[in-house]
Amino acid sequence: MDKAKGLAALRILLGAGFLYAGLEKVFDFAGSGKAFTAAGFLKFGTNGSLPGSDPKAIVNPTHDLWVSIAGNPGLINVINSLVVIGEVAIGVALILGIATRFAGVMGALMMGFITLAAWSFAFGPVNETMLYAAVALYLAYAQAGLAYGFDAIIEKTEIVTHRPALHYLLG
């Protein structure tokens, strides 16, 4: 069994998910006619949920933080840009296998923030954003960019061989 092919497929699949999410925000594939903003999610999607909790109850201990951020136009503009740029960049990096460790860690960080903000545990202690974060971290740990990715080529260049710290971004 060729584990490299499976690792590359997992990397490309997660990358495609990130890329699609970012491009959907830019091009509005759903045709809503509205520009993307995280403000709605931060205001109305951060109540949280726990098994057996009232759907209208606020169970997320960080809810007030997210609502206050949504009320700050300057900060919400920065967040909107970071979300879109982050999703597109992480997606492209994972698909191509470029700076895979960095992209995996940043993808896990983004999913961690979404997990914390949504606080959605109505169906148990593990949710989909936690799983995305775990897969992204695994791809970083497993050096998935070396499996049919450009990192395998980049790591052999003179620039990287003379600067070993760059190996922490690649792989």
DSSP helical segment count: 8
The general outline is globular
Name the average pLDDT. Answer: 94
Beta-strand fraction estimate: under 5%
Which structural class fits the helix and strand makeup?
A: mainly alpha
The largest β sheet comes out as: none
User: What is the H/E order?
Assistant: HHHHHHHH
Structural domain tally: 1
Q: Return residue spans where pLDDT drops below 50 for at least 5 consecutive residues.
A: none
Distance between termini?
A: 21 Å
Radius of gyration: 18 Å
- DSSP, total strands: 0
The percentage helix is 55-70%
Features:
171 residues, mainly alpha, 8 helices
What does this structure look like?
- By secondary structure, the chain is mainly alpha-helical.
- The protein has one domain (3-48, 57-168).
- It is 61% helix and 0% strand.
- It has eight helices and no strands.
- The chain has helices at 3-27, 39-44, 63-70, 73-96, 100-118, 128-141, 151-154, 158-161.
- Helix 1 (3-27) runs antiparallel to helix 4 (73-96), helix 1 crosses helix 6 (128-141) and helix 5 packs antiparallel against helix 6 (128-141).
- The longest helix has 25 residues, at 3-27.
- It is globular.
- The two termini are 21 Å apart.
- 32% of the residues are buried.
- The model has no long low-confidence stretch (mean pLDDT 94).
